[in-house]
Amino acid sequence: MPRCSGHAASEDGGGQSCDDGSDGHSSRLEPGGELLGIYWQYGRAHPIPAQAMGCTPKEDTAGIVVGNGFDDVGTFNMVGTYKLAKLKLTKQYVPGTGDPRENLGHAVELRLTCCDLFAALPSRAAEFQSWGCPPGNVGFYGTWHVRTRKYKGDGEMCLWLPPVPVVIGYVITQTMTSTTQAVSYDSNGDGVVDASQTTQTFTITPTQAQYGIQLQNPFGPKFA
């Protein structure tokens, strides 16, 4: 289970099949890491390039989270709490950064739940893969909420850790080389070189090489 440093998920999972700790198979995650994500607004997906999160546990499965990042609106800071699979965050944009039309220096409330993203949103499987989220990836799915005098809106969003390459095996090969050397010498001491001796040296050099790399979900399989 990843320890402190990540991102979060929604209160009710948007009615999707996210685990919430009630069936003994929940994703009990202390959010942490450099997360990627997407949010949906204006009828299309918007990328969240990277968000850094860190957490301070207050008990075994709950604590405080803080983080920061940027997206196509602007730079933001975050603070919130997590408990079991649930994550509540307030995302505060920094005025004067990013898109001046979209960044009002406003706050966005995030309500996310840790889940298997492909199981929670099967209709978006192709879209997830196009954004680099591999099948079976466990991440955070939920909703965002904005309430300002100029704009009110709600939508869906997801966050996940990018897959990392993992070596799954090595091949060790041995290469043998030989060196032959002929040495001439005086066999009877009369000052005349009349014999020769050949020596052969063998050298074995082991080489270790990766024979396979696969992508591993840093969250691991579904948590039990």
How many distinct helices?
2
Determine the structural class based on helices, strands and strand pairing.
mainly beta
| Helix/strand order | EEEEEEHHEEEE
Strand order within the widest sheet?
1-2-3-4-5-6-7-8
Question: What's the structural domain tally?
Answer: 2
Question: The biggest beta sheet, please?
Answer: 8 strands, antiparallel, barrel
Spans of at least 5 consecutive residues with low confidence: 1-29, 213-224
Q: Give the overall shape.
A: rod-shaped
CATH class of the largest domain equals Mainly Beta
The residue fraction in helices comes out at under 10%
Percentage of residues in DSSP E strands: over 45%
CATH architectural designation of the largest domain: Beta Barrel
In angstroms, what separates the terminal alpha carbons?
Answer: 10 Å
| CATH topology grouping of the largest domain | Lipocalin
Would you report the number of β strands?
10
pLDDT averaged over residues: 75
Query: What's the assembly state of these chains?
Result: single chain
**Computed CA radius of gyration, to the nearest angstrom:** 29 Å
Notable features of this structure?
single chain; about 220 residues; Lipocalin; 8-stranded antiparallel beta barrel; disordered C terminus
